[in-house]
Amino acid sequence: MTRKILALLLATLSLLAMADIGIEKAPTEKKEDATLVGWMENFNFPQGKTEKDKVLPGKWEIKTKIGTAASKFYIKEDPSTKKTYLFMDADKESGSVILEIEKLDIKKYPILRWKWKADILPTKGDGRNSDTDDQAISIYVGTGSIFIKKTVSYRWDTETPKNAEGQCSYGAGTIKIKWHTLRNKEDFEKGDNGWFVEERNVAEDFKKAWGFYPESVYVSISCNSQYTGSKGAARLEWIGFAKSDKDSKENAQK
Questions:
Q1: Helix, strand, coil: what percent of the chain each, to 5?
Q2: Angstrom distance (rounded) from CA 194 to CA 69
Q3: Closest CA to 86 of 120, 45, 141, 130
Q4: Among 20, 92, 117, 221, which one is least packed by beta carbons within 10 Å?
Q5: Within a domain: residue 221?
Q6: CATH no. for residue 122?
Q7: What SS3 class is residue 73?
Q8: pTM, 2 dp
Q9: Rounded to whole angstroms, how far apart are CA atoms 245 and 252?
């Protein structure tokens, strides 16, 4: 009897020790985290595709201005980290990729988060002047029809001061933009090996700019260098909409 009690005691102590160091603990799935993110794009390769195919994910479409050569957009993979990202490159070119976001309540998921890096900044690019309005990367969130679109834009400029903002229009006035310069040449090759993670309350930025919350939105990513006649290039690792909750930032990590 004494031996059985001793064996049982030793087994119990062993299990407690294993639990303390985590051996017995299975990973806990935080199911509630999924509700914090309303939409997310990680720019993974479509099934069966690789970097050499130079493809875009899902329903993203390339758009450009009439009479202007299109910038290049495609998925690449970092050989050191194995993480994929959207690569964009403009050589005296202009273009963007656009995606309509389905069933997103921007008031419920007002926070836009993304991770970006500029590789080449357009020479003397300055969004304050129409003849130098080039950026290595700009992110747009907008709504509207073919007749009129209203958007907010977050830019990585070259010369434009950080925190500068303004309004402009494209497409013969059919696309109205409220822009914000978040980064410029001062940030080039800084951050985390050139990468920066950003966060904006895009719902409030849009409401402040245009007086309402959009019921449906699209996301557009642009890379332009046609006005300066130079080159621009950048990367976007991920982008998504989340709830206004500090813990939701973890869900925006790849």
A1: 20, 40, 40
A2: 28
A3: 45
A4: 20
A5: yes
A6: 2.60.120
A7: strand
A8: 0.81
A9: 12
How many angstroms separate the CA atoms of 136 and 63, rounded? Answer: 16
Residue 91 lies in a domain: yes
* Structural domains of the chain, count: 1
Q: Which of 96, 50, 53, 52 is nearest to 72 (CA)?
A: 96
Tokens of 202: 């895009």
Q: Which of 181, 185, 153 is nearest to 165 (CA)?
A: 181
Q: What's the per-residue H, E or C state across 77-146?
A: ECCCCCCEEEEEEEECCEEEEEEEECCCCCCCCCEEEEEEEEEECCCCCCCCCHHHCCCCEEEEEEEECC
**Exposure b/e, 118-135, CB count within 10 A at least 16 = b:** bbbbbeebbbbeeebbbb
Q: What does the alpha-carbon distance between residue 106 and residue 125 come to, in Å, rounded to a whole number? A: 31
Q: For residue 175, give its domain range.
A: 38-252
> Digits of tens for pLDDT over the chain (254 positions)?
455 444 444 444 443 333 333 322 333 323 335 568 999 999 999 988 888 889 998 899 999 888 889 999 999 999 989 999 999 999 999 999 999 998 999 999 999 999 999 999 999 999 999 999 999 999 999 999 888 999 999 999 999 999 999 999 887 788 999 999 999 999 998 988 899 999 999 999 999 999 999 999 999 999 999 999 999 999 999 999 999 865 444 444 54
